[in-house]
Structures are given as C-alpha cells and as structure tokens.
Amino acid sequence: MPFAHVAARSSTIRRFPLSILVLAAALAGHASAETSAAPGATDLDAVVVTATASERTLDTAPASMSVITREELAARPVYDLAEALRGEPGIGLSGIGLDRRGVSVRGMDPSYTVTLLDGMRVNSSIGAIAHSDYDLGWMPAAAIERVEIVRGPMSSLYGSDALGGVVNVISRSATDAWRGSLRANAGEPAADGGSRRQFAVYAGGPLVADTLGLSMVADRSRIDETPDPLVPGTSRREARDADSGSATLSWTPGEFHRVDLRWLGGREERVRHGLQSGSNPYIYESRDEVDREQWALSHRGRWGWGESGLRLSRASLDKINHRAPGNPTGPQHLRDEIADGHLARTFGERHRVTVGGEWRRESLEDVLVNTAGSDQTIHRAVFLQDEIALADGWELVLGDRYDRHQRFGGQHSPRAYLVHERDGWVFKGGAGRGFKAPTLKQLSPEYYASIAGLLELFGNPELRPEVSTTYELSAQYRGERWHAQATAFENRLRDLIEIVCVERCGQPGVMEIRTYRNVDRAHLAGIELAGAVDLTATLALEGNYTYLDARDEDADRKLEMRSHHSGAATLAWTPVDAFTARLRAEYIGSQLEYPSRGPAIEVPADTLYALDLSYRIGSALTLRGGVENIGDARQDSIDLQYPYPQRGRSYYLGFDLDF
Fold first, then answer.
1. 638: confidence class by pLDDT, cuts 50, 70, 90
2. In which element (H, E) is residue 519 found?
C-alpha cells in the first residue's frame, strides 16, 4: 500500500422527490462552480491523493471521487464515519445486524470497502467480528481535515478488500502557529430515547518553529439507548459511550523531508437489551467493550532523483462482551502490523513511475477460529504504477499489484485509466480488477460455530479470493457558475463466498451442516449524476442521483436491500457572510427483502429531510442548530425486518469556538 497522505495542507422513479429529480435532470454532487464561493460546495480544484498516491486535482484525478471537507462535517452533527458519508454519490448504508450500519459503495457489501487513515490501512473487523461497525469510529470527527472517497476497485494500490472502493480519512496537521478549537453538540429526539451529546477539543502548533509540530484531539460522545415500543424492556437502538483521541508529532528536519509519529486510540461501550426466546423468555443486557489503538511512524522525502515514502504501523482492536443473565461471547483481539513503502520518479516529461511494496501480518485471537484460539497470516505485495502524459490534455494511468497470501497464493490486480481534459470538459474512462481475500475464520479448517441452534458452520481452507472487474466512463463540465458530471459503471463479481449447506439439508429437527464456498456471481451496473449551481449570489444548490441495477446471477434475482434509485440534494442560503441555512434531502428508493419463507417483500421508498443553521459571532464563535429527519420518516416502524433503524425526528444545538 502506497503512502497516500502527502504534503498537501490543506441513488420506475415513483414518488421520487421533485427537488432531486429536477436536479438530476438539469445538472446531471458534490461540487462547486468554477468561480463561485457556493456555501458548502466542494472545490473541484482541491488536491486529492488517494487515486494515485500523488497529488492531483479532484476533477482530473483518474478515478470516480468525491471529497468531504472539514467545514462540511462541522455544518451538521457527525458522530461516526457512516454519518459523514451519508448523501455522497454512490454511497449507501447497509444493515449488518444488531441494528448497526455499514458503508456500501455502488451497492457492494460493506466488507468490500477499505478504510484508510492518512493512507494507512486499519485492521478490518467486519470479517472477523460478527455485526462489527467498529471500523467507522477510528478517527475522531474533530481530527478530520477531509474525507476522500473513491468509487470503484483500487486493489492495484491498496490490495485486498478494495474491490468496491476506498474511504481515506485525512487528519488535521500541525500549523505554523498554535491554534485550537472546541466543539459541542447536543441532540434531543422528539420521541423517547436516543439523546446524543458530543464534546471535542483540538489543538495544534509548533514546538520548535519550522522544525517540530504537534497536533492533538480528544473527543467524548454519548448516544442513549432507544427503547423498542413493541417489546418493552428491549432496545431498538443500542446505547453508545465513546472516548477517543489522537496525537501526532511532526518533525521537518529540512524543506524536503518530514517524519510523523502518531498515536490514535479510543474506548467504546455499547449496551443493548434483548429478549431471549424459548419456553422461559427473559430480558437480558449485553454490553460490548471495544478498545482501539494504533501507532504509526512515517517518513516522506523529496530527493534529487524523485520521492520516497516509508511507514510502519501497528493497530489493534479488542472486543469483550458481557451478558447478564446468560453466556457472553468470547473475547476477540485483532492486530495488524504493516510495513510499506514506495519510490516515485519522473522520467522525462511524460512518465511518473511509482514502485512499492507492503508486508502485513494479520492476527486474530478468538476461541472459535481454531482449537488453539488464535490464527495469523502474512500478506506480501509489490506494485507498479505509471502516470503517462500521452499528449497535451491526455493522460493514461497504468498499474498492477501482485499480492501473495500465505494461504491461497497470489493475486494480480491490474488497472488502466484514461483522462482527457479540454475546454472545461473532463472525460474519464477505465477498467480495474479488485479482490477480497477470505478471512482467517473462513479459511480455518478448525473454525466452528453453532448458530441459533439451527446449523453448524465450518471453515474451508480451499477458498479462493472474491474478484470483481469494473468498467466505468464519465464526463463532466465546469462552467462559471455551475458544474455537472455523469458516470456509467459496470461491475462483475465472481467467486463470491457464500454459506452453503453440505449435510442434513432441510431435515426437520436436526442441525444443518454448512460451510463457506466460492459459488456466487453478481452483476452491478448503474449511472451516477452529480452537480452544483449558484442560483443567485446567496443561494446554491447541489445534489446527486444514482441508478443501480444489482442482480444475483446465480439465483437470477435482484440483490437484497439495494435501491434502484437514490439521491441527495442540499439547498444552501447565505444572505450574509455570518449566517448560513442548509436544507438537505436524502432519498432512499424501494428495496426488496427476501425472508427465509414466503415471497419477496418490497420495502417502500423513504425521504429524509434536515435543516442546518449556523451563525458566526465575531471571528471565533459559531453557533449551530437544526432538525434531523424533519418528517420523522422511519421505515423500521413499517417493516420490523428493516436492516437498521432510522433515527426519528430530533433537534440539535451546538457551537464551535476557535482560539
């Protein structure tokens, strides 16, 4: 995995909301006009680093990308990465069990998205811990400078799991003068339960002028339990209590070199109440304690011959469950140790070549994984990328990465992308292959789990990686006061790992024997439209729309819980510099759900509206307030099997104080 954090400082259209439909048809988003200062709109000249591991402008980066800035995150309540990504083009939220959510890119499973912190992979818990959304809480929101989102496979740079996309969280850096900020938010729902509170502090500045800098963040947040009105004493949404922080020491011994030492950590507690069924049902309390920690040391340098980057990191995640009454699940410990680096050099005026490699040791301690209660595997990889200037306004990016896995062998991940820029237009097109390695549990011949007394599940050491091949083509145009883009994509997945029955299948009164196998294929294709326009000097509109056709090719049916249509729009009004009002709309189209018995169920479409207000007093204090889910739309109150509960109408107040 390359060093992707460089020196830059810096979804038939029935019942579709009129505002989003008009925007999609007229504009075709997260973008700003070329010369405007549209409130809350994205700067297309912003520097991004995730697509190539080198600095590129957003509109010419060789990938389908969007960026969320620190200012946009501050404009609304954000408690985790899933909330930060809501409303972005091609991004959806998927239920992963226990009323928790995962991030889905272009209809792909949440486990097919890699999360990076400053370009560094963090250990993915979603494949090792059931119902895990713990990857969404690594970085405190107050520590985020921006979030870069790549839609499409990026295994050519980032290896396993990046067959759907990449979310790269870029942290705030120390500045040349001491600066700090305080942030507080409090949210109160209209119904019972679910109150939210958040307090964060940031400070950063020089310890030694032009040589040594320090940035620090501490964050405290709490979300109260939401009771289930249908089953008194149980939870509809679990309670969360989280403390997190980070500290980065940056040393710049010269103009062309920088060394960063970072610590990132946090502790989180989740509490929920459930109903244990049976002849003597009872209410139980389940409490998860989750501890995260990461240490990272990195160097980047510019030399006479080119550039280099080198990183060492170690990340761990521990989960302990307590249950009363009843038996808790066993403790689980994940650890990733990574060393990676790259060299980049420009040859003549047409080629910038990057070569690099990665070594990663993935470890899991879990009593279920095997008789020893622990397992590990080694990943090794090398990659090559060539950014080729073919002619004036034409660029071709070619890349390939070879990953060698200790268990299943090797995997190539090639990628090619062409970019053409001319007279305000940017045309892009490319193809790439991504893969996802089987998890340690899936590969272990000794893995065993008894699930709900209905089946026994075993691992399979003969599994192959899941592979996707994606093609995409896009066009975008930038005018003086507006911007629009359209993207078409096709994604074919093969060797998808599914749980299949191998013995005692369908026999009443006995437990089925199941295992993992590479059996499934899927086809996902769609269109993404995005754009922004300055309606007046004080009024700006931006939005996006995604059409998705997702099918299970083996079962010959639509994939479950994927919306054909989705979209989002924001209308921002800034009558004076100090005040901004934003009206947000998010549309989630109808979805199909396949129960274990009976025909498919159609989950109706839903539209969520929110209002955000901000007022700046002087140069230091900003007051914020608003309403989330104004219409109190909650599909989970209509369909009890809806994969995750929508938060009902709630009101929030907050402030930002800079010093």
1. low
2. strand 512-534
Terminal-to-terminal C-alpha distance of the chain: 37
pLDDT digits (tens, 9 = 90+) for 44-64: 678 999 999 999 999 999 999
Secondary structure element (H or E) that encloses residue 341, with its range: strand 332-347
pLDDT score for 30: 36
Mean of the pLDDT values across residues 517-545?
Answer: 95
Q: Give the C-alpha separation, 290 to 457, whole Å.
A: 26
- In the three-class reduction of DSSP (H, G, I as helix; E, B as strand; rest coil), residue 413 is classed as strand
CA 148 to chain centroid: 9
Asked if pLDDT for residue 380 goes beyond 60, the answer is: yes
Which residue is it, tokens 């209660």?
Answer: 373
Q: DSSP secondary structure string, 52-85? A: TSS-EETTTSSSEEEEEEHHHHHTS---SHHHHH
**What is the C-alpha separation between 453 and 439, in angstroms, rounded?**
24
**Residue 489, both tokens:** 């994509």
| Separation CA 46–CA 351 (nearest Å) | 23
Say if residues 216 and 204 touch (Cβ distance below 8 Å).
yes
Report the C-alpha gap between 198 and 130 in whole angstroms.
Answer: 27
Domains and CATH numbers, the chain: 18-658 (2.40.170.20)
Look at the block and give the residue holding tokens 């958040």. Answer: 198
Which alpha helices (DSSP H) does 143-216 contain, by range? 155-158
Please give the Cα distance from 260 to 171 (Å, whole number). 12
Please state whether beta strands 512-534 and 455-458 pair in parallel, antiparallel, or not at all (unpaired): parallel
Contact predicate 166/155, CB 8 Å: no
- The full 3-state SS of 11-47, as one line of letters, equals CCCCCCCHHHHHHHHHCCCCCCCCCCCCCCCCCCCCE
Instruction: Examine the pLDDT at 25 and tell me if it is beyond 50.
Output: no
Closest CA to 436 of 400, 403, 398: 403
Average pLDDT over the chain, rounded to whole?
88
Per-residue confidence (pLDDT) for residue 11, from 0 to 100: 36
Spell 9-29 as b/e; 16+ CB within 10 A means b. Answer: eebebeebbebbbebbeebbb
Give me 488's structure tokens. 């078409």
Residue 368 has pLDDT above 90, yes or no: no
Alpha-carbon dihedral angle through residues 94, 97, 100, 101, given to the nearest 10 degrees: -10
The string of DSSP codes covering 112-131 is GEEEEETTEE----TTTSTT
pLDDT in tens, 317-343: 999 999 988 777 788 999 999 999 999
d(CA 551, CA 603): 17
Higher pLDDT, 94 or 259: 259
Residue 647: closest CA among 135, 90, 238: 238
What mean pLDDT comes out for the span 282-289?
A: 93
Share of the chain above pLDDT 90, in %: 62
**Pairing relationship of beta strands 448-451 and 235-237 according to DSSP bridges:** unpaired
414 burial level (CB within 10 Å; 0-12, 13-18, 19+):
middle
Query: Phi and psi of 22, rounded to 5°?
Result: -60, -40
pLDDT tens-digit map of 185-194: 999 998 878 8
Per-residue CA distances from 265 to 80, 128, 262 (Å): 15, 20, 10
> Would you state the structure tokens that stand for residue 196, as one six-digit string?
């939210």
